[in-house]
Fold this sequence. Notes:
The longest helix has 18 residues, at 400-417. The protein contains 22 helices and 35 strands. The chain starts with 9 loop residues before the first helix and ends in a 26-residue tail after the last helix. It is globular, with a radius of gyration of 30 Å. The strands form seven sheets. Strands 1, 3, 4, 6, 11, 12, 13 and 15 form an eight-stranded antiparallel sheet that branches. The protein has an eight-stranded parallel sheet with strand order 28-24-22-21-20-19-18-29. It is an alpha/beta fold.
Amino acid sequence: MKSFLFLTVCVATAFGPNSRRMSEAPPRSLFNGRDLTGWHVDVPAPDSNVRVRNPFIVRNGVLVTLGEPRGHLITDASYRDYRLEAEYRFAAAPGNAGILVHASTPRALYGMFPRSIEVQMEHGNAGDFWCILEDIRVPDMERRRGPPAEWGTTEGKARRILNLTDSSEKPLGQWNTMVIEAVGRSIRVWVNGDLVNDGSDATADHGQIAIQSEGSEVEFRKLSIAPITHLTAAPSRPVIVSGSGKIIEQKGLRFKDLNGNGVLDPYEDWRRSPADRAKDLVTRMTLEEKAGMMMHGTARTAGPGGAVGFGTDYDTAATGKLIRDVGVNSFITRLGGDPRTLAAGNNQLQAIAEKTRLGIPLTISSDPRNHFQYTVGTSSQTGRFSQWPETLGLAATRDAALVRRFADIARQEYRAVGIEETLSPQADLATEPRWSRISGTFGEDVDLTRALVKAYVEGFQHGASGVDSAGVIAVVKHWVGYGAQKNGLDSHSSYGQFADFSSGSLDLHVQPFLGAFAAHVAAVMPTYSILEGGAAKVNGRPLEKVGAGYNRQLLTELLRQRYGFNGVILTDWAITNDCLEVCRNGFPAGERPTFAGIGMPWGVENLPQVDRFAKAVNAGVDQFGGTEEAQYLVQGVRSGKITESRLNESVYRIALQKFRQGLFENPYVDTAAAAAIVGNPQFQNEATTAQRRSLVLLENKNDILPLVARGKRVFLHGVDSSTAARYGFTVAPDLAHADIAIVRTDAPFQTLHPAYSFGARFHEGDLGFRAGDKEFEEIKRITAAVPTIVTVYLDRPAILTELKGRASAVVGNFGVSDAALLDVLTGVAQPEGKLPFDLPSSMQEVEAQKSSIPHDTAHPLYRIGFGRMYSRKR
Length: 874
């Protein structure tokens, strides 16, 4: 291909030709005023006529695009995370031009346009996005792009996304300033100080920069670039959506009159910084409203289980009462159902909140929704959300980029339905193999967990600079030492309220949280547990024997002062509730355990509730999970046990995040977009690929795997027969007619405390397969008859000693569909996973190890990091 080509290394040397992340530095000019050093020209016309002129010239120190012939002036270097400033004008007639960002493949569209996102400069329409084989999302997408069925990035598709405001340009002949900020997958554009476009979830996050010659002469007297780590706050013309209809207009700008006083108050003015707005809001709130904001309640649902939030429709009357009368504006949702219904329900709740005295929007949170395991109190049902392996499975891939991508997809799904906060990730170090909550962790390795926690937070919060208007608040948990539970018994229950630090190091369990802090995590949740033992010290002093939500040493001295955390500290659920008789000693025989009478006030059981609230706030807590009893904070202030100024600090932190997320301008979501985004085929394809990658091949005797399905008669246990048939297997009705068997089973567990609310649901006790257990006896029967492939769901580090000698192949999984499993068993994909923890060889070794120390199983059957690959192809 012939084209004009001007090559230099000036800019490439400055910022890196391989698109490396730029460090902070002053702005640098991309144009030297003399020639096209640092750029090359790509114009198709010379391919057929070598005499055609170069449409890009330097004239009187100004870069000029002549408009004809058409093509692009492209930087030699690629860039990411930058602020590009262009001063330009149409010197003669108005027309079209553009700046293309994240450019890559040349001539990818119509034989001329490089793969990129174009920021249009057409006079009167500056700031429109054009999607050229790359895509981006903006608020109010359907109105600005047209019907979703017509969207696309290729020829004939709706590639244009209209800007937020036309005619921001100055009169013809005058100089305009366009600023383009690109950070991560977000692009924000200003023209002469007006925010003209603001997009997120772009399909590219780096690339070259190109100037367009497309019909009109344009002069550029300035083209400068500066590295940045976060976008400038968007003070100009955000999308304003009001459920109440109360709008203030000033100089053509629109603002929501949230308190209905007809005056533009500082907290209503989106041109101000989130910090200034939050400070102003705090001064306008009553004591009761402040106390209400410090509650993180439960969105009530209709029907049985409504108090806990189970169901498919909100009880808007009950939840509305909490919003209006108590002042609660943070809620966990456990609502199931389809995405459109969930989005509509959240919009209903936001409309109620907008009509309160100050119009403070809700923050709606959720437990994880994108995995396989569902346990009340720790996760929510997946529904139609994309389904990924447990975080243990993500850890098995050892791929931080994959974790970041998972969290980014989950972020998009959450925000689509109106969920603004995720009660995750677990940064707990899984050092006690009997513990019930291991499946939600990243395993027992400090360095791996720290790296993956950082990636997780970056994905959910939409970057490494803290949550923004497209982000979801991440709540890293459980600070700190929760993975060292004594005998593996969980501190949701009274019998498991202690973490064992009789040896080891508390600092080791702090280390994974540093990944979250590096990503500017928005919130931290303390553990229920009381840390006991000689290693449970801060600043050389033994810890007070109270749960972490009441422990000033852990929250103020360690978290705030030593590690400088300045976000929200949100307690785990129900720490201020009483633990009644059924909570302490279990429900009566024959009675099904419920959540009535449950509380986790470990170490402060004898304090009155007002004193529990006061102690927690004075320890450092900002918000109380799972309660709406704001009256106790009011009583605490009026009795002198807490100062109102201390409440102001917490309310400011909570409000600041609402402003950063843009909720005061638009807390509503598009229900049609929710249905299109959540669990869409692209997202699920990526999730399924992650499921495959997470599988760990532990045994493969005689290279039985990968299987050749055609002609094989297979006996199935726990695997869908129709799925197996689609892979070419003949499903055998019994073992006598089978050539092989495929068995799915769970890691062994015991139900040691069936009379307790969480004990009846959590996996506790022994980790090994035992003679006499119904499931293991069936596995023995199958493996004795035919060669058998066994996959074990490893929610805890199972002891596979009894299985290893019987099965022909053993595969560890962390949540996998039958189809993804069979893809790997038949060689469509390789098993890439590596164990995120040791698999012990016996219960004696488990009992001999220390609860707070990783990697201390003396003779593991399989060591952390173990995982085979196939030695042959299918």
